[in-house]
Design brief:
Distance between the termini: 11 Å
Strand content: 25-35%
Order of helices and strands: HEEEEHEHEEEEEEEEEHHH
CATH class of the largest domain: Mainly Beta
Low-confidence stretches: none
CATH superfamily of the largest domain: Cupin
Number of strands: 14
CATH topology of the largest domain: Jelly Rolls
Largest sheet: 7 strands, antiparallel
Number of helices: 6
Number of domains: 2
CATH architecture of the largest domain: Sandwich
Length: 264
């Protein structure tokens, strides 16, 4: 907590590096930031410590974005995770008052490794409600029960695959946890990128008028597009999607990869 408050009171810290949330809703930055004159420039979004303190006393959670950019132990952990997985890694921290959390039930589109660094936080993590891993708030189906109902204490690590709905609240005192994320590489995006590269490399030319209304045999462009569409639609790319991951499969692996350092 000492390190967190040092960051907040630094005087150079600005939104969105630090953001405030309450009851799952972002607090408008104008409510707790101000402008400062720096080297003749009027720069916005510096923290007003009196407003931040007041919001925290009323149950606001502090969100620290992209911690790898300003906190070396976190940067080291992200670098190790990227080296081990080949995935782009980032980190966000949360400081929550007793009984409060940052967001209501939601899911993320990234792999998340939760590291509890101070206090304790109670987590409810559900299995996926469907096929989508799109990030955002979700609603639990009637009768759904958490797959994991647990309290993380200082030093505990837990892994969540993409698309796992979850929510968390601090227990008893203040809680600090860091979520280290790894962006998954999606097959569809890779395919879109590669096809886009191929199309960009083709010579461009003007098509004849009414090219798509020709009668009789389809023209060559139609034929190529139809053949490619058919191959992609029927999955002729020799790719078997992996089985869904579980938290139990990888929590220990990620904990080993990160080798959480002192001062984290």
């Amino acid at each position: 907590m000492r390190d967190v408050f040092s960051l907040i009171t630094d005087g150079r810290t600005r939104f969105p590096q630090i953001a405030l949330l309450k009851d799952g809703v972002p607090i408008p930055p104008a409510d707790y930031t101000t402008s400062k004159l720096v080297s003749g420039l009027n720069l916005p979004n510096f923290l007003r410590l009196d407003r931040v303190k007041a919001a925290m006393s009323q149950g606001a959670t502090i969100q620290m974005g992209q911690m790898e950019q300003f906190w070396k132990p976190v940067a080291d952990a992200c670098s190790r995770l990227s080296a081990e997985t080949g995935l782009k890694s980032s980190a966000v921290g949360f400081v929550s008052p007793p009984g409060k959390g940052a967001f209501n039930l939601h899911q993320d589109a990234v792999h998340v490794v939760v590291v509890q660094t101070e206090g304790a936080k109670h987590w409810e993590v559900y299995d996926s409600f469907g096929d989508s891993i799109a990030p955002g708030l979700v609603r639990a189906p009637e009768g759904a029960e958490p797959a994991h109902d647990m309290t993380l204490k200082k030093g505990d690590v837990f892994y969540m695959p993409p698309g796992r709905p979850h929510r968390a609240k601090a227990v008893d005192g203040w809680s600090v946890h860091v979520s280290i994320t790894a962006e998954p590489v999606m097959a569809k995006q890779v395919l879109q990128d590669r096809v886009g590269e191929l199309i960009s490399a083709l010579p461009d030319f003007e098509l004849p008028a009414l090219w798509n209304r020709s009668e009789g045999e389809p023209n060559a462009l139609h034929t190529i597009a139809d053949e490619l569409t058919a191959k992609l639609k029927h999955g002729e790319w020799n790719f078997d999607p992996p089985a869904p991951e579980s938290a139990e499969d990888h929590t220990e692996d990620f904990a080993r990869m990160l080798e959480i350092p002192d001062g984290f």
